Amino acid sequence: MDYLRLLFTEPSALQAIVVLSLISAIGVIFGRIRILGISLGSAFIFFVGILAGACGLRIDGQMLHYAQSFGLVLFVYALGLQVGPGFFSSMRTEGVRLLLPSIGLLAVGTLVAFGLAYGCGVSIPDMSGILCGATTNTPALGAAQQALGQLGVDANGAALGCALAYPIGVVGVIFALIILRRWFVRPSDLAGPDSEHRKNVYIASYRLTNAAIFGKTVAEVAAESHHHFVISRIWRDGKVSIPTSEKELAEGDVLMVITTPQEAEDLRRIFGQQEETDWNAENIDWNKIDSQLISQRILVTRPEINGKRLASLRLRNHYGINISRVYRSGVQLLATPDLVLQLGDRLTVVGEAADIHRVEKILGNAVKSLNEPNLVSVFIGIILGLMVGYIPLSIPGIDGVVRLGLAGGPILIGILIGTFGPRLHMITYTTQSANMMLRALGLDLYLACLGLESGPEFMATIVRPEGALWLGLGALITILPVILIGWMALRMLKLDFGSIAGLLCGSMANPMALNYVNDTIEGDNPSVAYATVYPVCMFLRVILIQVVLMWLLG
Question: Fewest C-beta atoms under 10 Å: which of 20, 230, 368, 487?
């Protein structure tokens, strides 16, 4: 059995793989255990690594550094690639209302953290780790370690501070939300499910009564109104048809219009009387609306379609069909003519069965062809991310240079490639399961290495007086800013509590708290708010922690 002892204890590439795989496996298993409805998920790998390191388990230092760096790069790049398609769309009017308190939470939390550092005599490197743990943000910890390394400062204290504060960060957000709901939330602040609030796409039908547009074509009305909409169907004299851009509108026509919630009222003034039928219910069988047309979702799988504008395909005029909605990365998009299609988009197509079948051949709809991830774009993106991360940036008032580093560069390039790659005809699509695998593998590898590196000093720190101090500071950094910003969003911005809870969880990068919110608040508002602010706050935290450390220590 001596060979087993050597396999786990003799430093080598094989030993590093075995040890990190074992730590990750144990952490994943125990991370699924729920206590009072809360689980640590992948973060439990961090604590298994700490325990292994505290028990004297070691791997080669260079192997540890390589695995930790590669895991972080893989995680943040895959994260950027996933959130990229919806990143810039979150800057719309509703998104700005959610982002303002989120950015305020970042600023207040950072000020509280480093204010407490000076007041309580905690070193800046140690406090940077406590801040990352209190906000459950491991990519920010990676960025902090990179910045401290550039400054020649020992970063081990940052990892220890993160390890101590991380559990407090997980439960602290939930505790703060409980306080907010019990003491500050009124019944009117708990908005019920609202389809107009939670969807980017809104469906309405109008009876044409505005004489000013009688006889005008669909294209003329669209050009003159400057509103974004798609006319999916027209009912005239008891018959339904798919309108082309040259279709002339007539008095009494009933139009089914796909638009956004914000523009529905403006379109009522343009077309006339709005019908009372609710077309936004989730249980509508679209194929039973009329007997002549069917509605079908078609998946874009042909590489030739990637990056093309919808109008350039001229599907409506050539095949007599209409595309009303596009589903991308879990978000509904309005099928406007200037929409750039991406591989993996799901298009809702309305028309006759034979015409839809012909369009299906053009778009692809071959699910199997998307099951093979395009690894070329992944590796090229990682290379570009590392190149960008290494670029020295000069910021006024800061001595030395700031670099985006291993965390900032790849996540920035991932967002940009996920957003603009298709316009350059890059195949950036990965299935949701493939992206989750990349993220999980990278994060698990990073956390296992981080815990193993921190383990030898963790137990000694937690029993010292500063260990209790760090735990208390982590609780303050988590709870106070969340309660303050949550109260301001309730009373000043007049947001509903569901959206506030979601944006607070997203700002703190806390999916465990979001699970609690979804179990206790009805509707999709928390999830929508979380998805809106999460990528922006994740990116800002990675940059902010580096800038603050360079400013205070440079």
Answer: 368
Q: Do 228 and 143 lie in a common domain? A: no
Q: Is the pLDDT of residue 199 over 50?
A: no
Distances (CA, A) of 494 to 190, 419, 499: 11, 31, 10
Cα gap 78→382, rounded to integer Å: 9
pLDDT confidence bin for 58, thresholds 50/70/90: confident
* pTM higher than 0.70: no
Residues 422 and 537 in one domain: yes
Pairwise CA distance, residues 292 & 289, whole Å: 9
Closest CA to 58 of 443, 451, 463: 451
Tokens of 184: 């500050």
Assign 7 a pLDDT band (cuts: 50, 70, 90): low
Report how far residue 522's alpha carbon sits from residue 40's, in angstroms, rounded to the nearest whole number: 24
Give me the helices (H) in 202-253, please. 218-225
Residue 82 falls inside a structural domain = yes
Q: What is the CA radius of gyration of the chain?
A: 27
**CB–CB of 424/307 below 8 Å?**
yes
What would the two tokens of residue 190 be? 């708990």
* Assigned domain for 292 exists: no
Beta bridge partner(s), residue 334: 325
Same domain (yes/no): 110, 243: no
For residues 375-381, average pLDDT: 80
Per-residue CA distances from 340 to 244, 424, 503 (Å): 20, 11, 28
Please state at what angle helix 124-134 crosses helix 93-120, rounded to 10 degrees.
140
Same domain, 82 and 98: yes
Where is the domain boundary, 312, 342, 365?
365
Beta partners for 340? 309
Q: What is the CATH number of the domain that holds 219?
A: 3.30.70.1450
Contact between 526 and 496 (Cβ < 8 Å): no
Dihedral sign, Cα of residue 488, residue 493, residue 497, residue 502? negative
Amino acid at 531: A
Residue 295 within a domain: no
Q: Which residue among 346, 365, 384 closes a domain?
A: 365
547, part of any domain: yes
- Give the range of the structural domain holding residue 11, as residue numbers without chain letter: 2-192+375-553
* 433-457: average pLDDT: 78
Q: Are residues 336 and 450 in the same domain?
A: no
Burial class (CB in 10 A: 0-12, 13-18, 19+), 492: exposed
Residues 399 and 260 in one domain: no
Report the percentage of the chain scoring pLDDT > 90.
6
Q: Cβ distance 395 to 404 under 8 Å?
A: no
Q: Are residues 428 and 474 in the same domain?
A: yes
Q: How far apart are CA 127 and CA 147, in angstroms?
A: 14
CB 529 within 8 A of CB 98: yes
Report yes or no: 130 and 383 within 8 Å, Cβ to Cβ.
Answer: no
Q: Which two tokens stand for residue 375?
A: 């690894």
Contact between 414 and 76 (Cβ < 8 Å): yes
- 145 & 272 share domain: no
The pLDDT tens digits of the residues spanning 314-339 come to 777 677 777 877 877 556 677 777 77
Count of domains for the chain: 3
